[in-house]
Amino acid sequence: MHNTVDGFSYGLVTPLVAYLMACLGGALGLRCTARATLVSRSWRPGWLALGSAAIGSGIWTMHFVAMMGFTIEHTPIRYDWLMTFASLAVAIVMVGVGIFIVGYRGARGTALFTGGTLTGLGIASMHYLGMAGMHLDGQLTYNTLTVAASVVIAMAAATAALWAAGQVRGFLWSVGAALIMGLAVTGMHYTGMAALRVHVTGTAEPSVGGSSAELLAPMLIGPLAFLLLAGVVVLFDPLMVMGRPAVVPVERKPGVPAHSEAPRTVRHPAHHLVRRTRRPLAHRHSRAPQNR
């Protein structure tokens, strides 16, 4: 039996909020990825990990905000908490693998393709694993061609976003990339939802007080709090806004004042020049009596 499936039960509210969540996670993650290229290797893993968690949390939050507007006529929807949070872990880990590849190998060539592919697969895996955690009195099937299109959209969006993060052209550049990434990721979500077919087998009536918004809202508190914390970290780091490193990194020459390097480079060659010009003269005078 086919029941009416509605993905916009709250109108445009859930798609717009979902898009903003995807943009927020993408902006924070891309700035952290760009920031990782401006620091020494000892700090780079921390920034890349923060960027991975921000992108994964933003995409996961986007997905379940959009799912708040998903309803099936006369059929209650339940969510498996373990499977739901497993999809969050998969998103963070797979996105992290792609970001670490680009962070250490550069956003170009094979590294960009590999990182974008893995990040896109992580986004798609999160979506369909999250859908697997949704339980109802029926069966979910998917159109294979539409699912493949959603995966391609996810990989293309991830590759473009990582390429933009590797350019390190400032805050506005990353914001623009995040807006594009949010649009692509949200489009991937609704493309995947368009591939869904629901075959209801039971006749259960909707449970009282069991709307999707009431079920999903408590699960979104943790990721939203993390995105807020990541936003505070970004705002209080000046290099995140300027998008360029300091002129002279201190960690390259610990304990050596920067102003003491210039005099030594000027005096040192002159000192050797005087010594080299004096030694041949001394030897020439010392050998002169012997030659006579």
TrEMBL record:
The keyword Transmembrane helix applies. Residues 257-292 are annotated as: Disordered. Keywords: Membrane, Transmembrane, Transmembrane helix. Pfam families: MHYT. Residues 265-292 have a biased composition (Basic residues). Residues 10-199 form the MHYT domain. The chain crosses the membrane at residues 12-34, 46-70, 82-104, 111-130, 142-164, 171-195, 215-236. This is MHYT domain-containing protein.
